[in-house]
Write a structure and sequence with these properties.
The structure is a single chain. The chain folds into 2 domains: 2-127, Nucleotidyltransferase, domain 5; 178-358, ATPase, nucleotide binding domain (Nucleotidyltransferase, domain 5, 2-Layer Sandwich). The longest helix has 25 residues, at 276-300. A 6-stranded mixed β-sheet has the order 3-2-1-4-6-5. A 6-stranded mixed β-sheet has the order 9-8-7-10-12-11, sandwiched between helices. The chain is of the alpha/beta class. Helices cover 43% and strands 18% of the residues.
Length: 381
Amino acid sequence: MKILVLNAGSSSLKFDLFEATPETIATDSERVLAKGEAERVAGMGEALQSVFQQIGGVTVVSEAIDAVGHRVVHGGDRFHESVIIDAEVEKQIEELSILAPLHNPHNLEAFRAVREHLPDVPQVAVFDTAFHHTLPPRAYVYGLPYEYLTEKKIRRYGFHGISHRYVSWRFAQLHGRKRSDYRMITCHLGNGCSMCAIEHGQSIDTSMGFTPLEGLIMGSRSGDVDAGAVLHLINHERQDPALLLRVLNGASGLKGISGVSNDMRDLLREESAGNERAALAIDAFCYRVRKYIGTYLAAMNGADVLIFTGGIGENASVIRARICEGLDNLGIALDPEGNETNSRYPREIGSSKIPVWVVPTDEELLIARDTLRCILKIPHE
């Protein structure tokens, strides 16, 4: 079965074309037939046309594609696993756009563009929030009046669930075991960053919250900020709320602290050149991750593995070292030589009491697999 995986942004559309079957899932042997991105497009219809041309033309696509899988950012408390998109699912994703106005509308645009060109091809929604539906109430409730939870749905949802789910599965698979056999702390560190405490196969806590703003310091997102500070800026500094939201999402984090860049590679170069603000941004970033590691060790009474993934997590050995520095009393220590090894493959970089691993993520592959599972009614993993 040929499965087209789409990840829609505001002005771009990333795609991967997989050949997958139940047998390839069992043997971890799916093939990537094509991949790419349509950028700086005026609309999703134009973006999809560009994707079709990159694959081989509209005629080739219409004859070859068996199913389409979409990354959908927000499934709220309604969607606990991936689903085939029908009229009711489409309606509910649209209703949830109020919780993810920067993401869900674009995901729906991509779905509708595909429906227009390939009306008979089934489409599947794979939700970034679904893996976190197992959060216990103590982890997802905020200290607000209870009606805010029941009536306004203000709670922790968590994101990057596709990545956390994949790397936790992949680690267990490499050891011939199941995810449920472990307590894992997974660190997805890229331009967007989040962490997850996975106990016996289930997400029991995660750093992102009601929106992807909460938690770790990120490339251009603030991470944890006292709500009182935000209200102070609105009420006393007369900051426009809409502008402040853009600042929190797009001009904060590493970019805001350093004043230079949201790219960790740039900041490391700036730090080596003596830029104190770049050094502060890196230090704060690593400290925040380290603090959450301690939090999740407490939440699960230990851990069986610490996993790094994402662009920074997979490639920035110096950042991994700084994060783990000083955690030896908690059972976490890196092997310096192993940590410096560059590889596209999963690898152990610390054989301490709590082993430390790098496991490259593959969200597109998981979306392709879930799409196949939905179409063939195979249970999810």
